[in-house]
Amino acid sequence: MNDADFFTSLPVLATERLYLRPMTEDDADELYHYYRDERVTRYLDWNGPSSVEEAAELIAQWNAKFDEKQLIPWGICLQDDHTLIGTVMCMPMRGTFEDQPLHPVNIGFELSADHHHQGIMTEALHAAIACVKETFHIHRLQAEVVPDNGGSLTLLKKLGFKQEGLLKQYLWHGASAVFMDVIMLALI
């Protein structure tokens, strides 16, 4: 797929066990419910949607940003159950995906706690990274991770990301109302 075709419709990526697919309003209930779990939100910079309605609005906003070529928002589901269990997001630091490979692209992800430690996010990120790097010839893919999130640090390093440094008090953590340090990792 070339980058001109990519934004006509978000491609569905299939792995051995998963689909990475576009999200719809029908996913709002699942999105809302897995964000209610502190095991999911403790490392994020926000608490997630406060209602199913807000989750539906959030999905609509993500899809609008996709239409503007500012965000790639994949929903993760198991192949045998199309229920949303997580997301993978890719977003240019500046501009749109039309400007690539000129600017770094951030990657972010979360997964329902019921699906942690099963290799699901490794599988999902491997597919997403391969797709965006091949389609957009991205020079630098980067991720910001709070130091206590050992699982995400290990995962990203396993996928080839290199730790570059510590950004002091970089991230406002809405749940605890404090600024948190983050570790910057990059795949070049």
Automatic annotation (TrEMBL):
Q: Report the SUPFAM superfamilies cross-referenced here.
A: Acyl-CoA N-acyltransferases (Nat)
What residue stretches are annotated with the N-acetyltransferase domain? 18-185
**What cellular component terms from Gene Ontology apply here?**
cytoplasm
- Gene Ontology molecular functions: protein-N-terminal-alanine acetyltransferase activity
Enzyme class per UniProt? transferase
Instruction: Name the EC number(s).
Output: 2.3.1.267
User: Sorted alphabetically, which InterPro entries does this protein's record hold?
Assistant: Acyl_CoA_acyltransferase, GNAT_dom, N-acetyltransferase
Which keywords belong to this entry? Acyltransferase, Transferase
Q: What is this protein called?
A: Ribosomal-protein-alanine N-acetyltransferase
